[in-house]
Design goal:
Layout: H1 5-19, H2 21-41, H3 54-57, E1 62-64, H4 65-77, H5 84-93, E2 99-100, E3 103-104, H6 112-116, H7 126-144, E4 151-153, H8 154-168
Antiparallel strand pairs: 1-4, 2-3
Helix pairs in contact: 1-4, 1-8, 2-7, 4-8
Length: 180
Amino acid sequence: MKYSIEATTKVRRWFDAARDPEIDAEVAAIHEEVAEAVRAAAPLCLASGQCCRFRENRIRLEATGIEACRCLLLTAASGRGIGHADLDQAIEAGTCPWNIDRLCVAREGRPSGCRVYYCDPRAKELVPKLQRHAMDRLQAIHVRHQLIWAFGEWREMLRGVMLVAEADGILDLPGAPSSG
């Protein structure tokens, strides 16, 4: 299947940005700022996997296109890449495709939304504040590097970039026919 020039260009630029050491460092710095704020607030995490069970807990996790591309690249490089079947299974289950046995196996690549969300009721005010800060900073990266700004539900963003990337040969997905 072919996608529009606009969609292909947008996704290709996001992947290029995710591969660019300067932009990757900027995104990583935002994620580190979030981590520092989370450490300071010290919300309780029981490693229950509740945060990754979106449907069950009525969570809408949002991510940017760059974050989706970055996570796909980092997980593929670490041998934890996903294919369409993995994503389909996660969507059907209402979970994240990288939630294995209640643990995240995409820790380095996960988007800011994952990094700020905690089930701890004491974090109720912290979560939206940190997410807004991270999104504002991510949007600034898009503006600075003249990238199309887009964000959406995590798995929808993954699906969109995976479909275009696979069709255009930008990324080989596990379980997909090799483009090489």
